[in-house]
Amino acid sequence: MYCNIGIETMSRAAMRQLQKERLQKIVKWAHEKSSFYRAQWKNINVEDIQSLDDIKKLPFTTKDDLIANAPFGMLAMPMSEIVRLHMIGEGKKTIARAYTAGDLERATEMTTRALVAGGVDISSIIQICSGHLTADVLGLQHAAEVLGATVVSVPTGKLEEQLDVINKLHVSTLISDPQHILQLVVAAQALDYDLQSMSVKTIFLSHNGIKSNMAAHIASRIGGRVFNLYSIPELFTPGIACACNAKKGYHIQEDYFYPEVVSLADGQVIRDGRMGELVLTSLISEAMPIIRYRTGVLVTLDHEKCSCGRTLARIHVP
């Protein structure tokens, strides 16, 4: 089942052409509009970026760069066009992530694709469990509603009421961070709810790690299939990469983010199948384009077509 079959099953040649066109456009946009990139690229002629391979001519962007410069040094749009600012981190390490209305529409598109890849459809009854209301929670709720699924509103942080809602309304899909799901499991045991005999068939774990070590444990305690919604808060909302029913890696939304894997030793791009650091470039980001962002995540890259039918590149984690 696909959300956007044209993109998710696009030929490799067509995808590379789309990525090239978007890369050239976003590089020119960032150079013209972002004071950070204008300064960082002062000795680079952006007209030289004529192919995807030319991206190697551009320096990396790091988390420290974002801490020091975001949002105002990174902004490529006036504040009058910014509809949301999302604060990430704590204390002096805080990063402000800005979004235009168009950015939020694209975030919804990515999240809907990720939910559909995990089996969500108009028959799904979804409960988004959270200890508190966040931008990610709002984004997930909107994406589910766009798909036509039924989203159940529940009190944040009230585990007994969340369990009661699951039981009474026959919730089929849970979305939350791994820690909150585990709290729900513990509360169910204490309150004599048998989660395995209840209606939940699918669990989405929304968190900043590409892989959750708790996924197998959660699946065994609840009995449903578990999917990770990979989020890099500095770049975008949940769904940058997602698992499908084949469970053979995580599909990168590569029409929106161009992936590279680089050597930890020298920062050079390495071939598919070799372990290195994931580097992502936002290809369509109006408010804050981020070019060649070093994620710090170790992966291998795989461009082979998945058995689910998707041709989107996949990342595999150790």
UniProtKB/TrEMBL annotation:
Signal sequence annotation: none
Gene3D superfamilies linked: N-terminal domain of ligase-like
InterPro entries documented for this protein: ANL_N_sf (IPR042099)
GO molecular function, one term: ligase activity
Keywords noted in UniProt: Ligase
Transferase listed as a keyword: no
Protein name: Phenylacetate--CoA ligase family protein
Lineage: Bacteria, Bacillati, Bacillota, Negativicutes, Selenomonadales
